[in-house]
Amino acid sequence: MKSAMLRPLKPLYIQVLIGVILGTLFALFDAKAAVEMKVLGDVFIKLIKMVVAPVVFATVVVGIAKMGDIRSVGRVGAKALIYFEIVTTAALVIGILVAHLMQPGAGMNIDPKTLDMSAVAGYAKIASEQSLREFFLHIIPDTIMSAFVNGEILPVVFLAVLFGVALAQGGKRVSVLVDVIDQTLISLFSIISYLMKFAPIGAFGAIAFTVGKYGISSLATLGYLMMAFYATCFLFIFVVLGLILKLCGVNIFAFLNYLKTELLITLGTASAEPALPGLLQKLEKLGCKKSVVGLVVPTGYAFNLDGVCIYLTMSVIFIAQATNTPLTLSQELTILAIGLFTSKGMSGVPGGGFVALAATLASVHVLPLSAIALLVGIDRFMGEARAVTSIIGNAVAGVVISKWEGALNIERMNQVLRGEYVEPDAEFEAQPVSVQASLGSAKAKGTATNS
């Protein structure tokens, strides 16, 4: 009776949702105590990030090693980069258009000289240290081990591609090593399944800190900008990404429902990284080829940050409107072009979205850098929408490139999205006991006959 009552609470996404709701209510009840709950979110994120680098490495290595044809690796990478550039450009353009349409900063008449630059000095300093040269040099780790020590995705992907190509060329001589890495990957996913049980607690702590630290009241003054930003993210997800998925034969609502656990974890923690291992598993189960997903999705975490792109252009136009600084068409096009770089160059940088905005303003030399202080109070709330939009964008990228490569099992995908797909290993377990016994007996007879 008791187990039947608790059954609706068993799905992880329900538990995470409850954690988010309780965290919000707790922060509204006792904001000071809620701020101290940040440690719960930090611990959960660290636990998952601890295994993200090995999971990405093993996934990419096994995928490429089993792919066999080295040229296909380059082809998949090239297609992914082309797709990333097209979609992120669309995100940047939509951010500009919606900001002009809704004008969230109009009438604020802010004097940049009155703003406290000390609140954003750290972000500005980090942004000034970033460059195209540093970005590409950062992809190459100092040592093989440092790629894992620092826990950054792009250097791990770079190392994994090299290792995977080497194993693919080794053929049968290294097949045992490929199998060992593949089995290690299975073990890593088992570890992640244990760690994910703490996701509701992590989501509780992270959301409690956000609401307790910045308060719902902080949304009042810039509430219209928040509404405009969230509306733009919804527009991008359901119109742009929805149309892209439709061309692949996928319904956006069914797709998001399938990824609800990963999306809620991202929303609760305001970070897409804890959901990466689960996303890789889900896309592979959906029918996407492991080698394609393993290469495209982790790379997309650096090159396909759709949420950051929307945030960048919307924030720049907001600041221009709030400070009464008119921008010409050529200046806006320059901002768009710079955004294509800064949205990628800040991957792995703490507070990446905010740093990217600081880098964009510093590069344009038209808007006052101190004006980013306007967004300090609500940046954390916008960070959640940025992360959710970006993870959805990368999930869609995995499906698109798989379809483009002819590496998407359409029939299996439809079965999974309809909830009709049964894992091969689970098929026997799903049978009634009497059927299992008869099947087991039949298997035993078959074994005896064959021997």
Short description:
This protein has 451 residues and is an all-alpha fold. The chain has helices spanning 2-6, 12-29, 31-35, 38-67, 70-102, 121-128, 132-139, 146-149, 153-170, 175-195, 199-214, 218-221, 223-247, 252-258, 260-269, 276-286, 290-303, 306-322, 329-345, 352-364, 376-404, 410-417, 424-429, 433-450.
Number of strands: 0
CATH domain class: Mainly Alpha
Summarize the main sheet.
Answer: none
The total count of helices amounts to 24
The second-level CATH architecture is Orthogonal Bundle
Helix content: over 70%
Structural class comes to: mainly alpha
- Beta-strand proportion: under 5%
Q: Nearest-angstrom radius of gyration?
A: 24 Å
Describe this structure in words.
With 451 residues, this protein is an all-alpha fold. It has one domain: Orthogonal Bundle (Proton glutamate symport protein). 76% of the residues lie in helices and 0% in strands. The longest helix is centred in the first third of the chain and has 33 residues, at 70-102. The chain is globular, with a radius of gyration of 24 Å. The chain starts with a helix and ends with a helix. The relative contact order is 0.17.
Helices and strands in order, then pairings?
Blueprint: H1 2-6, H2 12-29, H3 31-35, H4 38-67, H5 70-102, H6 121-128, H7 132-139, H8 146-149, H9 153-170, H10 175-195, H11 199-214, H12 218-221, H13 223-247, H14 252-258, H15 260-269, H16 276-286, H17 290-303, H18 306-322, H19 329-345, H20 352-364, H21 376-404, H22 410-417, H23 424-429, H24 433-450
Helix pairs in contact: 2-11, 2-15, 4-9, 4-10, 4-11, 4-17, 5-13, 5-17, 5-18, 5-19, 6-20, 9-17, 11-15, 13-18, 13-21, 15-21, 16-17, 17-21, 18-19, 18-20, 18-21, 19-20
